[in-house]
C-alpha cells in the first residue's frame, strides 16, 4: 500500500516496522489484586500488599481483565487459546517490587489475528492493507520512577504496579510512518468500541514500543531497534521517521546497527540509546508457580462473543449501504462516540445521507469550535433529527437551518421551539414573494434591462436581493421560479 522509501547516497531503502502496543485493560481493579486503577490518584495510595510484594501475598487473577482481553482478540478475528499460562519475567528495578513481572511468554491468551487499515478515507476498501497481529498477552505493569521531585533522589510511585495490560504485538508488516499511524489509530478505535481500553495515550493507558529496521529492496531483514513507551500517534510516526533515517545514515557511512532499546525525545524529535536489547533468556522466564493455567470453557467464550458491539468496519459498510459516502462513513465510524451519536440520530428518524452530511460538516464544526465532544454535545440526536426534518419538509431553508442550529447550541432548545419563538419559518407565500420581487424590479430598472438584454448572470443578483428583502425566510425554489417568470415577462 505504501511506496515510502528513504533516498540514501547508495540508493533507496525500505523501512520495516512492527509495534508492540501496551493497552491498559478497562477494569476497576488490577490484574492480581483489588486495588483501584483510577488515573491521577496521589502517589502510593492505590497499592495493596500484593502490589507491594509483601511476603506471603499471592496473586489472584481478575476475571474481568481476562474477559476484556478475550473480547479484544475476538474483535480482530484472532485465535483464542482456551489454555494459557502465566510466566515470570525476572529483572530488577526500583519500580518492580517483586523483582519480576508476571506476563505470558510461551502460552499467550490470544494468538494470531489481523487489523485492516487504510490511508485513503475517501476509498478505504480500495486502498486497504492487512496488518498481522502475532499475539495478545496479559501482564502486569510496573510502577513509576519520579526523578523530578528531589534534587538528589528518585521517588517511586507504585500506583501503576500490578495494573493489567494487554500487550498487542503486530507482525513487521508496516512500511511507512503513515501506515504505523493508521494501524495505531485503527487499533485504538477497536479497543474503544469493545470497551477494553480507553485509549487515552496522554494518560499512559495506551503506549507503543516501536520496532524499526531498514534494508535495500529484496534484501533480508535488517537489525532492528526498539524505541520504548511512545505515547501518541504523532510521536510514533516521528520516531519512525527519525530512527529509519538514522539507521540509513549509519549503514551508508560503513557502520552497523546495534540491536538496542532506545527512547524518543519529543521535544527534539530524535531517538537516543537507552540500553542494549535483552533477549528472552536474559529475563530467565519460567512458569509462575503461584498461578494455575487459565482454562476457558465454551460458555465463557460464547458470552464474550455475544457481548461484542458492531465494530468499525462493519458499521462503515452498513452506513455505505444506506447511501452514505465512503468518506463520511469513515469519518463517522472513526471514534465510537461519534458513531453512537450518529446511530441515535438515525434511530430518531433522520435520513442517512442528509444526516451524515450535516453531522460531518455542521455538528463536527460546532463541536470543534466550542471544544466539546459528542458525549457533551449541547444538541441531542433527537433535537438534530427534528432540525433535519424541518429542512426536509420545507419549513426551513439551509441558511435558516444554520441560524436555528446556532441558537440551539446556545440555548439547548429544540428546533421547533426555536422556530416558533424566533419566527424563523421559511415562507412559500407567492403573494409576499411576488410583492418583494416587484419592488426590486422597480428599483433596479437598469439591471432588469441588462438582464433582458442577455446578461443572465444578473439573475443571481436578483435572487440575493429578494432573499435579503424576505430576511432569508423565502423558499429559494419559489424565489427562483417567480423571479424567472416575472423577469421574463418583459
UniProtKB/TrEMBL annotation:
Residues 340-487 form the Asn/Gln amidotransferase domain. InterPro entries: Asn/Gln-tRNA_amidoTrfase_suB/E, Asn/Gln-tRNA_Trfase_suB/E_cat, Asn/Gln_amidotransferase, Asn/Gln_tRNA_amidoTrase-B-like, GatB, GatB_Yqey_C_2, Gln-tRNA_amidoTrfase_suB_CS, Gln_synth/guanido_kin_cat_dom. Keywords: ATP-binding, Ligase, Nucleotide-binding, Protein biosynthesis. It catalyses: L-aspartyl-tRNA(Asn) + L-glutamine + ATP + H2O = L-asparaginyl-tRNA(Asn) + L-glutamate + ADP + phosphate + 2 H(+); L-glutamyl-tRNA(Gln) + L-glutamine + ATP + H2O = L-glutaminyl-tRNA(Gln) + L-glutamate + ADP + phosphate + H(+). Its EC number is 6.3.5.-. It comes from the Bacteria. The keyword Protein biosynthesis applies. PROSITE patterns: GATB. Allows the formation of correctly charged Asn-tRNA(Asn) or Gln-tRNA(Gln) through the transamidation of misacylated Asp-tRNA(Asn) or Glu-tRNA(Gln) in organisms which lack either or both of asparaginyl-tRNA or glutaminyl-tRNA synthetases. The reaction takes place in the presence of glutamine and ATP through an activated phospho-Asp-tRNA(Asn) or phospho-Glu-tRNA(Gln). Belongs to the GatB/GatE family. GatB subfamily. Heterotrimer of A, B and C subunits. This is Aspartyl/glutamyl-tRNA(Asn/Gln) amidotransferase subunit B. The gene is gatB.
Amino acid at each position: 500500500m505504501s511506496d515510502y522509501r528513504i533516498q540514501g547516497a547508495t540508493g533507496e531503502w525500505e523501512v520495516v516496522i512492527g509495534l508492540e502496543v501496551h493497552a491498559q485493560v478497562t477494569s476497576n481493579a488490577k490484574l492480581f489484586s483489588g486495588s483501584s486503577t483510577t488515573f491521577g490518584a496521589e502517589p502510593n495510595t492505590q497499592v495493596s500488599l500484593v502490589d507491594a510484594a509483601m511476603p506471603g501475598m499471592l496473586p489472584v487473577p481478575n476475571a474481568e481483565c481476562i474477559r476484556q482481553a478475550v473480547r479484544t482478540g475476538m474483535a480482530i478475528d484472532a485465535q483464542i487459546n482456551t489454555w494459557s499460562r502465566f510466566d515470570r519475567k525476572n529483572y530488577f528495578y526500583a519500580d518492580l517490587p517483586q523483582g519480576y513481572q508476571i506476563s505470558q511468554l510461551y502460552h499467550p491468551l490470544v494468538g494470531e489475528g489481523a487489523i485492516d487499515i487504510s490511508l485513503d478515507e475517501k476509498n478505504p476498501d480500495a486502498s486497504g492493507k492487512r496488518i498481522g497481529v502475532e499475539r495478545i498477552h496479559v501482564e502486569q505493569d510496573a510502577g513509576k520512577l519520579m526523578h523530578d521531585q528531589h534534587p538528589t533522589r528518585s521517588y517511586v510511585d507504585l500506583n501503576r504496579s500490578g495494573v493489567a495490560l494487554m500487550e498487542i504485538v503486530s507482525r513487521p508488516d508496516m512500511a511507512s510512518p503513515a501506515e504505523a499511524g493508521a494501524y495505531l489509530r485503527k487499533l485504538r478505535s477497536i479497543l474503544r468500541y469493545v470497551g477494553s481500553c480507553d485509549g487515552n495515550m496522554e494518560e499512559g493507558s495506551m503506549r507503543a514500543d516501536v520496532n524499526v529496521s531498514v534494508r535495500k529492496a529484496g534484501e533480508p531483514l535488517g537489525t532492528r531497534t526498539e524505541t520504548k513507551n511512545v505515547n501518541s500517534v504523532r510521536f510514533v510516526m516521528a520516531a519512525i521517521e527519525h530512527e529509519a533515517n538514522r539507521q540509513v545514515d549509519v549503514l551508508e557511512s560503513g557502520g552497523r546497527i546495534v540491536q538496542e532499546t532506545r527512547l524518543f525525545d519529543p521535544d527534539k524529535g530524535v531517538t537516543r540509546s537507552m540500553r542494549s536489547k535483552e533477549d528472552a533468556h536474559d529475563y530467565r522466564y519460567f512458569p509462575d508457580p503461584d498461578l494455575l493455567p487459565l482454562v476457558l470453557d465454551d460458555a465463557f467464550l460464547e458470552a464474550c462473543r455475544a457481548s461484542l458491539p458492531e465494530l468499525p468496519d462493519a458499521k462503515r459498510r452498513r452506513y455505505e449501504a444506506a447511501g452514505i459516502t465512503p468518506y463520511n462513513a469513515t469519518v463517522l465510524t472513526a471514534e465510537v462516540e461519534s458513531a453512537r451519536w450518529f446511530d441515535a440520530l438515525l434511530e430518531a428518524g433522520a435520513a442517512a445521507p442528509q444526516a451524515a452530511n450535516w453531522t460531518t460538516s455542521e455538528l463536527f464544526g460546532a463541536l470543534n469550535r466550542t471544544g466539546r465532544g459528542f458525549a457533551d454535545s449541547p444538541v441531542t440526536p433527537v433535537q438534530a433529527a427534528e432540525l433535519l426534518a424541518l429542512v426536509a419538509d420545507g419549513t426551513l431553508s439551509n441558511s435558516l437551518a444554520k441560524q436555528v442550529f446556532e441558537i440551539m447550541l446556545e440555548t439547548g432548545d429544540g428546533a421547533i421551539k426555536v422556530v416558533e419563538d424566533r419566527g424563523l419559518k421559511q415562507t412559500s407565500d407567492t403573494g409576499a414573494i411576488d410583492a418583494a420581487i416587484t419592488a426590486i424590479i422597480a428599483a433596479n430598472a437598469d439591471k432588469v434591462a441588462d438582464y433582458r438584454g442577455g446578461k443572465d448572470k444578473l439573475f443571481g443578483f436578483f435572487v440575493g436581493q429578494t432573499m435579503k428583502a424576505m430576511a432569508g425566510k423565502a423558499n429559494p425554489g419559489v424565489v427562483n421560479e417567480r423571479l424567472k417568470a416575472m423577469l421574463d415577462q418583459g
